[in-house]
Write a structure and sequence with these properties.
This protein is an alpha/beta fold. It contains eleven helices and 13 strands. The protein has two domains: about 170 residues, Peroxisomal Thiolase, Chain A, domain 1 (3-Layer(aba) Sandwich); about 150 residues, 3-Layer(aba) Sandwich (Peroxisomal Thiolase, Chain A, domain 1).
Length: about 325
C-alpha cells in the first residue's frame, strides 16, 4: 500500500508586503533584498488573523480536490512553529473544522522541514495500514515573530499555509521514498530563543528581544546547500532514481541563491525547478506545499511524472521525498 497525493490546497493572506514597504520600515532597499534573496514581496497576516485562518481553507481546498469529505480523514498533522496557541494544537482546530470526529490530530515542530516530516509520517501511517486518508498541513505566521529592526531577517519571511490529502493506493502512484535527518548540535543557527521553558515569557525576556527569530545567515547557507543536495540524492537512490529522472523539483523556498546552488549541485534537468520565493518569501513549513499546490493547479504536473521535494530548517532538520504523480 502506498500513499498518493490525492489533493492539494493553499491559502495566503490578502495583504502584500513589498520590498518598497520594507524600505519605509527598516534600513534596506529593493535592490539589496532581491540581490541577496530573490524576494520581491511576501504575504502578511492581519492582526486578527491566526494560523488556523489559513490552515482551514487550505485543508478545505485539498479535500475538495481529493473528492472526499472531512469526516473521511483518519489523521490530521499540522507542521508549524507559529501555531494559534502553544496548546492545544492547531491540528485539533482543523480537525474540528473539517468534521473529522475523533480522528487523531497533532502539531509537529521541525520549522521549514516540518511539512516533509509530516508527509513522511502520514505516509508511514498509510503504509502500516493504520489510516486510509491523512491530511498534512504546513503553515506559518512568521511575521508575528520577526524583529522588524533586523534587516537581515525581517525581509525574509512571509505567512500562509499549504495542505495535501494523502490517500491509500495499491497502484504505482504515490510516495516512492523519503529521507529525514536532524543535527541538534547546530540548533543555534536558526532559533527563537525566548518564550519556552528555558527563557519563559517575562518582561526581561521581551526587553532582550528573545521572542524574535535569530539566524546566522552565512553559516546556515553553507550547511543548507550541502544537506539539501545530499538528502535529495539519498531519497532518489532509495527508489533507484537519479536527479536526471526528476520531472519537477520543489525545494524549500528560503532564498533564490540557495535554490540555484542546490539545483546546480544536483544537476536536475533544466526548467524542472519550481520557484515562487519572489512572491511569497520564506513561509517555512508552508513553502513546499504552497509551491506544490500552485504547480498542481496550473496543470503542469502530469500523471506518472516524478516530483522531488526537499527542505531544510531549524533544528537543524532536513528531508526529501520522491513522489510519482
Amino acid at each position: 500500500m502506498r500513499a498518493r497525493i490525492a489533493g492539494t490546497g493553499m491559502a495566503v493572506p490578502d495583504k502584500v508586503l513589498s520590498n518598497a514597504d520594507l524600505e519605509r520600515i527598516v534600513d534596506t532597499s529593493d535592490e539589496w533584498i532581491v540581490t541577496r534573496t530573490g524576494i520581491r514581496e511576501r504575504r502578511m497576516a492581519e492582526p486578527h488573523e491566526a494560523l488556523s485562518d489559513f490552515a482551514k481553507p487550505a485543508a478545505d481546498r485539498a479535500l475538495e480536490m481529493a473528492g472526499i469529505d472531512g469526516s473521511e480523514i483518519d489523521l490530521v498533522i499540522c507542521a508549524t512553529v507559529s501555531a494559534d496557541r502553544i496548546f492545544p494544537a492547531t491540528a485539533c482546530a482543523v480537525q474540528d473544522h473539517i468534521g473529522a470526529k475523533d480522528a487523531p490530530a497533532f502539531d509537529i515542530s521541525a520549522a521549514c522541514t516540518g511539512f516533509l516530516y509530516g508527509l513522511c509520517m502520514g505516509t508511514q501511517f498509510i503504509e502500516a495500514g493504520r489510516a486510509r486518508n491523512v491530511l498534512v498541513i504546513g503553515g506559518e505566521i512568521l511575521t508575528r515573530i520577526v524583529d522588524w529592526t533586523d534587516r537581515a531577517t525581517c525581509v525574509l519571511f512571509g505567512d500562509g499555509a499549504g495542505a495535501v490529502v494523502l490517500q491509500a493506493t495499491d497502484d504505482e502512484r504515490g510516495v516512492l521514498s523519503y529521507s529525514m535527518h536532524a543535527d541538534g548540535s547546530l540548533g543555534d543557527l536558526i532559533e527563537r530563543p525566548g518564550g519556552g521553558s528555558r527563557d519563559p515569557m517575562t518582561h526581561e525576556m521581551i526587553d532582550a528581544g528573545l521572542q524574535h527569530i535569530r539566524m546566522k545567515g552565512n553559516e546556515t547557507f553553507k550547511k543548507a546547500v550541502r544537506r539539501l543536495a545530499g538528502v535529495s540524492i539519498e531519497a532518489l537512490a532509495e527508489c533507484g532514481m537519479e536527479p536526471g529522472d526528476v520531472d519537477w523539483f520543489i525545494p524549500h523556498q528560503a532564498n533564490k541563491r540557495i535554490i540555484d546552488a542546490v539545483g546546480q549541485r544536483l544537476a536536475v534537468p533544466e526548467g524542472s525547478t519550481y520557484v515562487n520565493v519572489e512572491r511569497f518569501g520564506n513561509t517555512s513549513a508552508a513553502s513546499v506545499p504552497i509551491a506544490l499546490d500552485e504547480l498542481n493547479r496550473a496543470g503542469k504536473i502530469e500523471a506518472g511524472q516524478t516530483v522531488l521535494m526537499t527542505a531544510f530548517g531549524s533544528g537543524l532538520t532536513w528531508a526529501s521525498a520522491v513522489v510519482r504523480w
